[in-house]
Amino acid sequence: MSSKKTTVEGSCLCGRISFRITLPSRFCAHCHCANCRRAHGAAFVTWAGFPEDQVEILTGKGELSRYVSETGTIRSFCAQCGSTLFCHGPRWEGELHVAVANLTGEIDRVPTAHVYVDHRAKWWTILDSLPQYGGKSGMEPKS
Questions:
Q1: φ, ψ dihedrals at 18, nearest 5°
Q2: What are phi and psi of 106, to 5 degrees?
Q3: In DSSP terms, which residues pair with 67 in a beta bridge?
Q4: Strand partners, 88
Q5: What is the pTM of this model?
Q6: pLDDT of the residue at 1
Q7: What is the rounded CA–CA span in Å between residue 77 and residue 75?
Q8: SS3 category, 72
């Protein structure tokens, strides 16, 4: 029997919202879209995707605020400290994306790609060898 941990917990900056995710994840990638960059105040954000029923809010569910972007994507964040925690939308039915930086442990994979690279911050240079995707969908292979 494996001793590998099958759950990982996380929280917002102030700790009012805590959550637990059950592995396995569906993906882990760095997103460079303008909405993610603005929501996080960073060059990119690293997301891991899970079926929605694998993410459980442990504390602070009433503190979770939501913002619906023009694409219909719902970004969930802490009303107290502003930490962006989750993202889901019509493009990813039944899937919840979790901001990896808010996890207190490791998940079952490392980032495997950069997406929406056409929208990346011009002051940031991608130096690793991970595959890069862009184009209209944000997921088209870059040559």
A1: -130, 155
A2: -90, 150
A3: 75
A4: 74
A5: 0.92
A6: 41
A7: 7
A8: coil
| Residue 31, burial from CB neighbour count under 10 angstroms (0-12, 13-18, 19+) | buried
The span from the CA of 10 to the CA of 98, in Å, is 9
**CA-CA distance, 53 to 91, in Å (whole number)?**
17
Using DSSP's 3-state secondary structure scheme, residue 34 falls into helix
Supply the pLDDT for residue 142: 87
Q: How far is CA 63 from the centre of its chain?
A: 19
Question: Which pair of structure tokens corresponds to residue 79?
Answer: 């009303």
How far is it between the farthest Cα atoms of the chain? Answer: 48
Which residues, 6+ apart, have CB-to-CB distance to 105 below 8 Å? 5, 8, 9
For the chain, first and last CA: distance in Å?
A: 43
Radius of gyration of the chain (CA): 15
- In terms of residues, how long is the chain? 143
**φ, ψ of residue 103 in degrees (nearest 5):** -85, 145
Q: Does residue 30 sit in helix, strand or coil?
A: strand
Amino acid found at 122 = K
